[in-house]
């Protein structure tokens, strides 16, 4: 696994913020608290956590077209931000959060593989800091975030199961995916897909063993950053 | 698992077509052969398989806004059609297919849960029929589709692992996902996600056991329809 | 005129539905009842009937781009759905309908010329079934649909007036158009246009004679389907 | 019929231009010659005539939203500009025109009913002037525009057939439409539609009688303007 | 400076209208009064003035694509209409205007350089006429427009400071810009930009001297038109 | 003037990059070299410099909607990126640069007023570093960037001319603008606009005196960062 670094408070306006670095992948995560919730839960007393994802045009090796210029978010972006939102929600007690929305923005400053996993891991930290603020202010009484959420990528590269693929590994891997888990080892989301090949159930199990170890390390880094 | 029915040749223009019914979920799948390929593989000699997905506005219990009116495909649509394309490609030898593109359109006529899985299973049949036509015409010599691809949804509903969820089950399930596999039992894609809860590795294994049985049944239906 | 078939109840969710076949042209029509009306008639006590039209990408001989992907409905689509809505409204007593909206979706499953006329004829059947449901429930007392509405295409093909053109005829015809009429022989809309040629008033009259006969046959099929 | 005025050469850049006034309806028509043709006729030797239509935001009694701001042309605009293009093409010998495109822009400066008919009548004048320029330069030898094209609206207003409806008449008329004809009395397009009512074949004939007289007057005004 | 002409009352529907001609640049300006204001000043008692800008497709030497077809206003259009709105607001006492909005539409009929300046100068006249109507009706008591607003372009062309550039001058000028001023000589907006070169402070001062003279002439023409 | 800091090499992929901080305004600037140029200068031998501008959603005090979600860049964004591109081009000898394009992306990480000026000043540094790389590689022989370009905002706040406004000052200032200049004191662009008020020529001169001092300081910081 690559070196992890989580720097909190990277920007001054957001209720919570963290710059997470997984090797050369750097993602700025900010959490914004708003009093309104989406229409479908208005009046329910439940809170909501959602996420948006973006990449700076030159976060990658060759410049990518800005999505604002293209006129819409691409399919990959939409898929990723839905995954981040779903994953973070799984670690939040929405009753305890109360009827408010927290939006976690994950913007990739520099990309080298695994940006969606870094976004979830770093996004959880930004969310944790924002919720801390709510608890300190007495707006939230019971902690809605008891079990931290982190994510790690895995894949089969050159025939071997590999953890936390960087971009060159990722683009060569015939099978790759993401494991989103809680610090206590429960699963939130598993996505493992083959491109132009297949994999066996044994290989799937080997990857899951690796992922469990990786997530434990990430959870430790989260704990240290938010202590 | 709900009753399966696959009616081939449902429309006359497409190179391959199938109306698949999984209980009350009905999806019309058509396969279109074109001589052009996407720019990124031009001149490579490789073929391409892609998919698009849509729902008729009143396929669902309440009418949904037409995506053509909304001005874009929603995030859910984009996610689904990328999954269908990826899954079908995994079962195709793109060298044997040769430099041509096959587009599989999956349009939901009536929805009752599991539309993306039905699309993959039925889409494979439409693709198979189109490729048969290419082989009959001598345009393709070696069969590029040796191992059939099918998909089944699973979830944890009322505490129990359940196969092939219908809409009421699906909307209540705290954990649900899809297994895309080949008839020979290899995995192509696993997606298992929790909404507002988590699941254990044992539960994951129980679901995978169920899925293996379901896919075997689907593969039999595909075999019968394309015999 | 080509063989007519109207199969009602083709989908289970819609308040009214019909699959109409005019030869190889197959259109699925569904009617959706909603309690809201457009802003410009709110509080007026009047009802509203509107229509939307779409084509599955491979309904035609070569695959057409999905309008949801293109980002908007094309000019032809907009023209057609405005015509369908206008025609159906002409056969509805909006006072008797009461302040509610019925949306008729016409989706072409397979196209072989005359899809807009089939949409109107089949759309009227779906609408009739939905209104029957309202009357059975006692929500509508006086029948708002006394005179059935049907539509037939005509044209001058190879110098001869022709009824109900199929696609090869339609694309060769120098003059073609549509007659929308009631079962009792009143006109609702006449559209007759020449592309790169002109026509005389005598020819116009000959086409209208043909259309009157065609609409009588269609009205009989509608009666049979909704008896 | 309202007073007609056609002022040619209203703008200096266009190859042909005319400001047509039908009472208080004022439309500026310009014709632009380009050497390229649409892809579907490239290399055919045939010419193309197309049209676009727009309204200034305050051409109407209350301000309408600018279509450029709304992000697309509305359904009404698309319908109208397709009609104008089709009508003008019917009066042009595309072989004689040669492989070039002429775009006729019709922009409504002030609206008081009948803007699409004024656009066709005035658009023909702009087109005529542009073609004159091509003939003078020797780029076109045989005149491609032998029979002038004009359009007039008709309707049933207060029970009576009426010619050239202004806006108050038009918005009250239960039946209204447009007749596009050549100066020699041939029909190009008939559109007659009822909104919330129907009409008889006798009424249709009465309207057509009126239209023939109106178009004769318009053709005289076109002749005078382009003499 | 080119010949100025301002014709008021060019269209009948708008509360104020003027066709301004600066040489061969012709812009139709209309002012529309509405009772609603933008959300951000609702209930403040303050009025709002805003502007929109457009060009007819063949206002220019070669035909430009219609923005409604392109699906959005271009960057140049947005820049210009924001400038017009800002400039006109600077000359309006928004308390005296009262809580209403006036939209000034500036549509270029024919372009030959300096369209944004002509829009501001002519737009002020349309606005003045609309406000006159409000004052005559007693809806506005104290005149909100005490100091007229006009605009003139300047640039350095062939090494010399030049006033009111026409299109050939403008496209050759290495430095050009706009001065928006009041009739009493106060500045509202200065924009002076170099393309591929630079300019000195002395040159800037020379241009401002020229502009002061030009605006005085424009203010006289505005006075004459609205007397 | 607020404290200036310029950190070069902030991201690893771009040919040039700089994180500029003007007080609490932080902008990440990257320069991307591409061999292609825009169509209008293809084959001319001239180079091109262009810019794009964006803001992270929570760069500001309250979260702003992501432009990629809104479906287009707002008017303010378009205005700003056109200004940045124009300003940087003014400091580049496009013949010496040769037929290649450099795109400067300016993404605001944290905003506190003056983001467009910081983008120009920092963008010049990123551009300088990218050009250095071209010169080192021998792709460019003669230095195309002889006179550095920097920008500073000015305004009249509480009756006093003020340099380098932060956000609270900027939102209160009745008059504000930007001066873009070269290190040698030549002007590139002046924009000074009043919102709801006016200013005199003397005030304009006082602001320009201030700006000259500010740009000198910025040029020193640029020199230090790129030494």
From TrEMBL, chains A, B, C, D, E, F:
Top EC class, one word: transferase
UniProt catalytic activity: tRNA(n+1) + phosphate = tRNA(n) + a ribonucleoside 5'-diphosphate
Enzyme Commission number(s) of this protein: 2.7.7.56
GO molecular function: 3'-5'-RNA exonuclease activity; tRNA binding; tRNA nucleotidyltransferase activity
PROSITE patterns: RIBONUCLEASE_PH
A family per Pfam: RNase_PH_C
Annotated positions binding phosphate: 76, 114-116
Classification via CDD domains: RNase_PH_bact
Keywords: Nucleotidyltransferase, RNA-binding, rRNA processing, Transferase, tRNA processing, tRNA-binding
All residue ranges annotated as the Exoribonuclease phosphorolytic domain in the record: 1-130, 147-214
Alphabetical list of PANTHER family matching this protein: EXOSOME COMPLEX COMPONENT, EXOSOME COMPLEX COMPONENT RRP41
Subunit structure: Homohexameric ring arranged as a trimer of dimers.
Protein purpose: Phosphorolytic 3'-5' exoribonuclease that plays an important role in tRNA 3'-end maturation. Removes nucleotide residues following the 3'-CCA terminus of tRNAs; can also add nucleotides to the ends of RNA molecules by using nucleoside diphosphates as substrates, but this may not be physiologically important. Probably plays a role in initiation of 16S rRNA degradation (leading to ribosome degradation) during starvation.
Protein name: Ribonuclease PH
